[in-house]
Structure formats: structure tokens, C-alpha cells
Amino acid sequence: MTDVKGDRSLAPHQQADPDMFLHITRRTEKGVYVSGAKAHQTGCINSHYLLVMPTMRLGENDKDYAVVGAVPVEASGITYIYGRQSCDSRSMETGDIDVGNATYGGQEAMVIFEDVFIPNNYLFMDGEYDYAATLVERFTAYHRRSYVCKCGLGDVLIGAAAEVADMNGVPKASHIKDKLVTMTHLNETIFATGIAASHRGYPTDSGAYLPDEMLANVCKHHVTKIPFEIGRLAQDLAGGLVSTLPSEADLRQEEIGPLLQKYLRGRDDVPTENRVRILRLIENLTMGRNAVGYLTESMHGAGSPQAQRIQIARAAQLNEKKTMARTLAGIETEADKPESTPTKDGYLGRVFDLDSPQEK
Amino acid sequence: MTDVKGDRSLAPHQQADPDMFLHITRRTEKGVYVSGAKAHQTGCINSHYLLVMPTMRLGENDKDYAVVGAVPVEASGITYIYGRQSCDSRSMETGDIDVGNATYGGQEAMVIFEDVFIPNNYLFMDGEYDYAATLVERFTAYHRRSYVCKCGLGDVLIGAAAEVADMNGVPKASHIKDKLVTMTHLNETIFATGIAASHRGYPTDSGAYLPDEMLANVCKHHVTKIPFEIGRLAQDLAGGLVSTLPSEADLRQEEIGPLLQKYLRGRDDVPTENRVRILRLIENLTMGRNAVGYLTESMHGAGSPQAQRIQIARAAQLNEKKTMARTLAGIETEADKPESTPTKDGYLGRVFDLDSPQEK
Amino acid sequence: MTDVKGDRSLAPHQQADPDMFLHITRRTEKGVYVSGAKAHQTGCINSHYLLVMPTMRLGENDKDYAVVGAVPVEASGITYIYGRQSCDSRSMETGDIDVGNATYGGQEAMVIFEDVFIPNNYLFMDGEYDYAATLVERFTAYHRRSYVCKCGLGDVLIGAAAEVADMNGVPKASHIKDKLVTMTHLNETIFATGIAASHRGYPTDSGAYLPDEMLANVCKHHVTKIPFEIGRLAQDLAGGLVSTLPSEADLRQEEIGPLLQKYLRGRDDVPTENRVRILRLIENLTMGRNAVGYLTESMHGAGSPQAQRIQIARAAQLNEKKTMARTLAGIETEADKPESTPTKDGYLGRVFDLDSPQEK
Amino acid sequence: MTDVKGDRSLAPHQQADPDMFLHITRRTEKGVYVSGAKAHQTGCINSHYLLVMPTMRLGENDKDYAVVGAVPVEASGITYIYGRQSCDSRSMETGDIDVGNATYGGQEAMVIFEDVFIPNNYLFMDGEYDYAATLVERFTAYHRRSYVCKCGLGDVLIGAAAEVADMNGVPKASHIKDKLVTMTHLNETIFATGIAASHRGYPTDSGAYLPDEMLANVCKHHVTKIPFEIGRLAQDLAGGLVSTLPSEADLRQEEIGPLLQKYLRGRDDVPTENRVRILRLIENLTMGRNAVGYLTESMHGAGSPQAQRIQIARAAQLNEKKTMARTLAGIETEADKPESTPTKDGYLGRVFDLDSPQEK
Prior knowledge:
Four copies of one chain form a homotetramer. By secondary structure, chain A is α+β, with helices and mostly antiparallel strands. Helices cover 42% and strands 14% of the residues of chain A. The first copy, chain A, contains twelve helices and nine strands. Chain A has helices spanning 132-145, 150-168, 174-199, 213-223, 226-238, 248-252, 256-263, 272-286, 289-300, 305-315, 318-329, 347-351, and strands spanning 23-27, 31-42, 49-52, 67-72, 78-82, 108-119, 123-126, 202-203, 209-210. In chain A, the strands form three sheets. Chain A has a four-stranded antiparallel β-sheet, with no helix packed on it. In chain A, strands 3-4-7 form a three-stranded antiparallel β-sheet, with no helix packed on it. Chain A has a two-stranded antiparallel sheet with strand order 8-9. In chain A, a hairpin with a 3-residue loop joins strand 1 and strand 2. Chains B and C meet through strand 2, strand 5, strand 6, helix 5 and helix 7 of B and strand 2, strand 5, strand 6, helix 5 and helix 7 of C.
């Protein structure tokens, strides 16, 4: 979905280079050809098909940019350029400690399309620019709600922080217990707002359910902040070693290894290597390869913070709330009354179950 | 529920005065007599019956304090002492503006019991001290989840803030729109965490459903902070007039009134009195009578902040999270492994739907 | 200084009513006559003279609004309209407890000028509209730095919160000690940023010293948030009684008084009245008369939050910082270089003591 | 200074391995021999001499741990073990872009002492365990105040974030300007609290000046949080590319290079490589080698957050503040009065210039 966008102050058709947004370059009877590039595609190389979609509201002049279609990942004309991640080359080193998490990781790639063919039967939007905004909003409602996944990473980081405090010998210090509660409270806030977005979902006329867009955006907006705070607290509990630990090679080295075994020990009954492993996991999640997914992607995936704020503003129904305030304040004049439409269609209508499917 | 507690570092039976917690003073064949006092009883005077319950974990020596029973509000031996609220005497003044919200308010009273009789058929706990903690935890799960009600007050305050910005002539300033989004994001976080606590509710053996206690505590803990931040932002948007406005009496006064009509005007098409009314509503919710309910009660009702943190710590299952972290870090030794019991009984078991009713 | 402003989206000369900003209505050989109103004037009634000044940047069409002059408080044509404060009428009740702080308080009034005469020798600006912005900026640098005064109120509130925790019997609970540290850290941040603004002050050509405007704005901007957080924490430590306490009249009443003496007692060696008095002081500072000064005035006095953000943006010298970043990033092309002027004149010049008076 | 500490719940002499804290192992007429290890020594390899000091309060049984002395970095018996940093191996790659900051970086090492000799004339403490706490407190007052250095890194990161917003074509979006103001406000808070700690410094009897310990701790405590928030906001302004950028090798590659030149372009007049360089600098400061210094070291250097909270609590003079509150609340009884000593010696004495050097 994410076009590279070029100069962000300009619409697709205004860009100096038309390829800054993916678009149709040529049509045949059998289908269309598209060019452009999609950035930050998480997991694209593990997929079978790519589905291209517009990334934002389009106008009449952006008609060629209003294209949705599917292509196999190995289609002719596609180039994948693998993104670097923090500490990526550790994955190629000997050993399994310094990498932090030897089993799991991810990848992002830039996907470049040069006259890639989409056959008609895989073409789902072709020029209907006025539906682009709705498409993006509905897609992002699903996508933003799905960011509840980050609380799984949060669980691991909370566990790692609790474990390192234990290994350091200070699991009972009140400030440590308190920080673990803060981390948990924040992490479960992501979980709860995501769950609520689904619980308050509602069907379109087709019968397909959409998550509640207000709550989906509330969820994702928390995700742009909370993992950073959990990460900060994990580094607090870890202690400075999390970023000054020597290498695994040194730990295994004949002369230096025993010195490190001795001096990196925390609580006496904990093997030094265990402590090192937990610290490297925390480094991995807060600065290394998985920090890309836990922090930066939490910020920008499914839309950067400002994108959620725009959607929250749209769903907020301020005029309805102004009317409530006026009534309670005893304002009876109509002259300056806001144009309020407390109907069943908006967020408040759903909250108060005005004509909701649950109530029928 | 809330006993007056005396010296909070001491258990009920250790207090210098035994009446600091409500307790049984005498038994007859027909029932028991209780003495003590319950503080902060919101709405007690509008009720038909009072239900007394212990307010915390009890030990063997606190047996007489383990009492649950119902009494009619007019039972002999009960004294109600009405609490003062900020700006309470404005309700007795002439006019309906300065009070801020002339229609709605609330009251808290201290309820003093002096040998009040509870008949056996209205006596639901009598000495079972070891159930007191469970009773309190279950009750507070319901009670804390119910604090989602504060987002209704939040809606009104957001509406009032949006309306006053409008009346001041600056509704489109980006920082004002941004603050309204922040207020909405915070307010909906309360709503979402409360809804999630119910959605994740589960039945006890009796068939009665309990809200999820982790999420109910997450919800209430947000309520101890978010209304204060929404209140602060409402005062920001209101401008300084919210606490320097002259009295309604001056507004109605023959000579001063016209001066105020002229100088308190904001946008030209908004009647001055409307602006004054909205500002008084904001004062009412952030400093006046309804601030008691919106702020202080949000802090302490259903348990002060630390009470939720204790419950969140209990539900957090840190050992299970430590085990996840150890696995991902590649720790294989068993020596220092935490005693983890990833069973269906705890919060994580419910999250992963291990044997949950929904999955059956 | 603070004009009533009318429709805030319009300049002084664009207002429907010209009196929304104080301005010259008529000139004679001996002086000028001014009309308009100044809102929120703290302490004006205790003063000997009033000094009127413009409240914002003025343009050529606002020439009559560019007026600075002094008038005695009792000058002909001035009307003072006293502002209400939260809980103001408690000051007129019998007793000295419910008022919270029987000795100190403040007042704000609206000051209305109807053709008030300013003689030439007390007229310090007369039409020099292009100096209005500089005048306001310099004045607000002093005024914003002076808001360091709020940490005196913070000290009292921290003391009251510590004292009530003590009286409740829980001064040693780790979460209480931790909250007192947070309150202190926040309060001293106000103090430190204010002190730094003075320490980094510098002389104008006249020899008069100005506080550093960046740091003065940093200080005041903290003041728009920190007292609200300290107030929230004080209410946390106080417990719910802070807003459900019965009245002093009940405490003194023959029948009810002894009941309250008994049930409002905390730690056994603390007289009940002492505990009530501390709670009323906390109410006074967080919801009552002194909350007007500690909270609302902290928000809006010397400029609302957004006003400081504008000044911080002006002083931030982003182009100089961009140039630093480009150098460290190894960017050598000049094409797109920002227009940076790392001179002695701006904030960074003063920080690095380029030509500062201290260095000479 | 920082010993490796072993089990943090135990004093030095209680550790299973006595070398967990550096200590005297043997004495001769000419000096002492010490063993142990110092962790996280920033820049140690660039130094001429090492100065060893105790890292915390010591008791009578810790006498051998009360040692201060200087040794040349090349002294016999010292082993340096270099710490890994996030993305460290990028410094060994070809090219100068991916490293983020090709010119500046730092290093931390663990320094192991095995019977290292300290001659008597370089031995400054030898067994005076009861001075260890004072030594640590005074040293940390200097050290914590010195963390004001992090606002230099903050300036660079603010500049980089402003520059990347510019290159993306959106420097004027209100939310971007607003975030740059927030970053500046936070960054200058570090500067101001550090400056204030020095300005409020005072001489010991020797004439040597100490920074004010309250304000030095307030400064460092901000440093444990603010860089993380500035870093988060920089990643927000950077966009997702900050962690999905392809490698410099790809940028230079014959076939892929031109594709990247085309698709990574932002604003049309900005060379793509410039944009890449700024993004890599942001990665370097928020996840890479300099994140170690800007984030993790800001957290733990000169003492982890809890260490500052302990010092703030010590300096807070709560009893003096309780007394202020009691006076204003009208409490006249002496019975339960806190033991207040409002003397010239504490922080408040210095604030109110009771007998301060400035006042003499």
C-alpha cells in the first residue's frame, strides 16, 4: 500500500516524477501495466501474491493512480530491494547470543514495479478515484486494530525485564515492581483498545464486519507511543550492561571467557550466560533487529501518528458533544447552535446503540 | 463499603478505636447489631437499602468485621452526615448560571451506624473472614469496570471545550483541534478498556459473569489520571475567564450588567450569556460541584490508584512472561527457571482462550 | 495588559465593537482618553497605579490601540468588576476551617475604562504600533520567568500531602514516598528553569537586563502543566475525604461533632481537627479559592500555553541545528542547504557564549 | 567507579565472590594491590590514568572496599574488554553512510583489575569506609549535573528531524512544527536544570564549589527520560524509512543504485543521498552506535533513575514543608508536629539564601 510519495506536500499527479505513486502506465484488452514503488513491505518476500492499493485520498487528476490489483511475487518487472535493519549483520556472525533472538525476525523490502502486468481478473479497482479514500479508511481500520499484535512483543519484553531484575538480585525492590506494573498497564491498554474495536465492530450492507474505526484508531495511536515507553522501562530494569556487554566471541574466548563468566555474574545461582542472553534479547527488542518491528514499525506501520489523529477527529462528532454541553449549561437560544445530527450513523449512535445490530 | 479506616497502617482489630471498621457488636437469635461508619457514600440518601460489606482482606482476629448485610436507609441507629462539595453553597444562590450545572449534581455522605440491627434473613456474611478478600476483589472488578461512566462526563467536557473555542472565534486553530483530539483519544481509552473488560468477562461456576479483573483494573487506573488531563485541557481551551468571571448577580445588575454584556462577548453572533454559561459549566466540572465526581471520585472511587496497581501485579503472571523471554533468548538450562504455570486459570490463559467458554 | 479580545480571530481594528481592545478615543493637548477593558487583573484592587499596555502585535490600522500609560486606581471612568472564585463564599461563612486557607487568598477583577484620562507625562507609548510586539515579548520574558513563584505553592502542597499521608498512618508506603519524589522533581523543575532564565539573562543596549526568553518560556510552559500534576498527586495522597468532608459547622455541632471527632480520626495521636484542616488546605489549593491561582492562573497568566510554544519556536534556530545535523551526517553539497546564520545574536550564540557579556 | 556488583541485594563483603566490588587484596610498604572490575567505562581507552573509587555506601565490614587510587591505563594486571554497541560492525564496512555518523562515536569497556598495584602517593582513600557515601554523593552531584551534555546530542537530533521533514516536503505541517517545539522544550529543560544546578552551587569549607545536589539530581533524572521522548519524536518525523532504508552498497550498485536514486527522493531539489544520510544519522542516534550514548547511557550513566530519586527524597526536607502547610492550614497544636529544622544547611535554606555566600 505505501507509495514512496516523493514530495509529501504534492498530490500524485503533481509530483515531478509520476512514479512516486504506483499508477497505470498502459492498458491492453487483457489488463493493465503499472509502475511505481511500494516502500516498507513487511514480510513481502515470504508471500505468494502482492496486492497493490492506493495509499491515500485521490482526486480526479489522479485517476491513473486509482488502481487495486494482485500480482504473483515473482511477476516480471518486480524488483525487491531488501532494507537494512539495526544490527542486521549480527545474524551472519558465528554464535547465537549477540543476535538477541536467533529464531525470529522479520524483513522489510522496497518493491519496485516497472511495467508490471495485472490481468483483468485480478484488477479490483481501475480509475474509481472517488472510492480511494473510503478504501483506505476501511483498510486502515482493520490494519490499525491489528496492531494489537504488539502487546505480544510487550509481554516478552516485560518478561525479559522481570527476569533480568531477578537475575540481578533485586526482584523485590518496590520501584522495580512498580515499573513492571506500569509496563503491564500500558501493554494491556493496547490489548483492551484493540479488543474493544472488534467487539464494537459492525456490518456493512454486504454483511462484512468492520472494526469500529474510532476505537481502531485509538488502539493504533497508543501503539505509536506505548512500546517506546515499555522499551525505555525495560532498559531501566536491565541496567547499563544492556549496551556495554562484550561479544559472544569474547565470552567463548579461552582467556577472556573465564573473566567474563566471573564478572558478568549477577545472582550467584544464575549462569552468567543466561543473564547475557536475556540482556541481548532486551537489546534486540529496544535497539536491534526486532526494535525495527517493536518500535519504528509501531510508529509508522498502518499510518503514522498524525494519520490516526485525523481519523479520530473525523469520528469525534464534536457538534453532538457541543449540544450536550449546551443543554447541561442551560443554553436555550437557538441562534448560535451547532449543526448537530445525533443520528445512528456516527460513533455516538453506535455507542448508544441507536439502531445497532446488537439491539435489533 | 468504605470504612473510615483510622490508622491505615493497622488491621481492623488493631485500631485504638474498634469502630474504625464496621463490625458486629452483639448477636441475638434474630440477627446481629453493627457499629462503625462508612465514608464517601455517593447517592446513599437517594437509596432504599444500604448494603454493608468489608472493605479489605481480613484475618482471623478480624472475625467480627466479616459482615455483609442489608438495612433500610431509615433503620434505627443510622446517622447521615452530608459532605461538603466545592462551591456547594452556589446551589442555594438565586439564579442558575453560577452553579454551572443547575440540573444535575450528586452528594456524598458519611453513614454512621450505632448498634444497627441486621435481621438474619438480610445477613449474607457472618464471620467468614477468609472470603473477605475474594469478595472485595470480585466486587471491585465490577465496580472498577463501571467507572467507564466517567467518559460520559468526558464527552460533555470535550463538547464544552469545543464550544467555548468556537465562541472565542478560534475553532480552527491547529493547536485547538489537536487538543480536542487528545481529549477524545484519552476519553475513548476509558471507554475501550471498560468495554474490553466486559467482553473478556467469564462465568464463575454459578453461571454469574465477572468482568475480566485485569482489564477492569486497567480501565479504572486510567480513570485515576485521564479526567484530570481532560480537565486541564478544557481549562486551556476555556481561557482564563473560566476562573475570573463575575457573578450572575453582576450580569443581571442594572448598571454593571450592560458593561459585562459588552465586554464578555466573544464571537459577535454569540450571546454573551451563552459564553458565560459554557464557561461556568467548565468551572463546575473542573473545580466545582461536579469536579468532585469527575476528578476526586475518579481518583478514589472503587479504590485509589495503588489498589489497582496491586491487582494488576497479581494478574500479570510475570513468571509465564519470564518463561517466554527465556525461550526466545535461547536459554536452555533449567536450574534457575521461574516456577511458571501457564494454565487456563490466569489472565494469559483467558487471553489465549485456553479452555475458555467462548472456545468450547 | 490582557484585553478582553472579543472574536479572537480578528485584529483589534476588525472587531465589531472597537472597545474589545483598549484604545485612545480622544486627544487633547494635555493627554489622551482611553476606553476598553482589561480582564483577569490579579491584585489590581491592592495597587496604587494601573499601567495599561497593548496585549499583542499590532498593525498600522491598530495605531490607536498602541498605547501605554499609567493611571491611579481611583481615576475617574474606571469600574472594577470583581471575579468570582471557586468556593469564594466560604470566606464569608463563620469559622476558619472550610475556607482552607483563612489567611491568604487573592482576587482578580475586570477593569473597565470609559474615557479615562492619561496625562502626557504618564503616557509612555502613543501610536508606535510597530514596537508593540517587541514590548509584549520583552514584558512576557520577565512575566513568564516570574511564574517560578508557583513552586512556593507547590512546596506547600507537597508538605500538605506528606502531612496527610502521615496523619493517615501510611507515610512509609513506598508508593507514597515515590509520589512525593515525583512532586518534588516536578516542582524543582519549575524552580530550576526559572533560575536558569535569570542566570542566562543579558543586557540590552540600555544596560537593563532581560531574562533569557527561550528559558523564560520553557519555565512558564512547565507551569501550565506541572501544578495540575502536583495537584492530582496531592489529591491521590489525601484520599477521598478531601472532597467528602462534612462542614466545620457539623464538626462544631453538639450532637454530630463528637461523632465526627471519632470517625474522622486517622493516626491515633493526631487531633481530628488537624487532619480536617490539612484536607481543607488541599481542597483549597486543588479545587477552591487558591486553585484559581495555583492551577488556572498557572495555565493562562503571562500567556496561555500556545503563546509560549510560539516563542520557543521563534528562539529555536532550527536552521542552525539542521546545519549541525548535515555536517555530522557527512552532507557536503550546498544546493539544498538551509539559510543558517550561527551568529552571536540568537539563543545558540548566547549558549555558546559567542560574544556574551560573561565572556568579555 | 561502577563495580560489576554481582547480586545487587548483597553488600560487597556479602557477595559469593569478593571480586564483585574492587577491593584491596594485599598491602606492602609501598602501596596496595587491588582486584575487581569496573563496568561501562566510557572512553577509558582514550585516557592516560584510571581513577578507581567505591560505587556506593560502605559499612565497617566493607573496609577493604574503601579504596580510591590512580593507576596508569597501561598498568600491569589490567585487562580491557571492549563492549559491543548496536550496529558496531557497520563501522568496519566500506562506505560512510550506513554508519550514520562516520566521524564521531564512543566506546565502553569493562576494566578488570587483577592485583593491580597502586603506590601510596596515588592512594587517596584507604579504608575510610564511612566517607564512601559522602564521596559518592559529591561525585554524583558533579557527574549528574554534567549530563547536561546530552542536550548537545538533542540539538543535533532536533536539527536532523527538522531537516528530514524539510526534505520530505512537509516542514510547514502544524503537527510537525508542534513536535519540533516539544522536542526543543524538553531539550532546553535539560539545559536549564543543569545550568541552575551550577548557578546554585556553593562552596565547601575547602573553597571548592559543589553544584546544588537537588538540582543536579533533578537534571539527571530528566535525562533518564527526555532523550527517549526526543528520539521517539525524531523517528515520528523521519517516517518509516529510518528503519527500512536499503544499504549504501545497494545505493552504489550499478543496477539498483539508479532505482534507489529515483524512488528514495523526497522534495525534488534535494539530492537523494542527502536524505539517506540524514535518515541514517537519525537511526544512528535512536537505534545505532550513538543511541548507546544518547539513550542507554542517559538512563544509567551517573546513576540509574532510582538513584536520583533517593537523592531527591533526601534533599526534599519534607518536614519543613509539612510545617509550612500546617501554618497555612491554621493548625496550632504542637502535639503531632513534625521535627522540622528550617536551618541554613539544607536545600530550602539555600533557596531562601539563609546565610548563603551570595547574601553575605
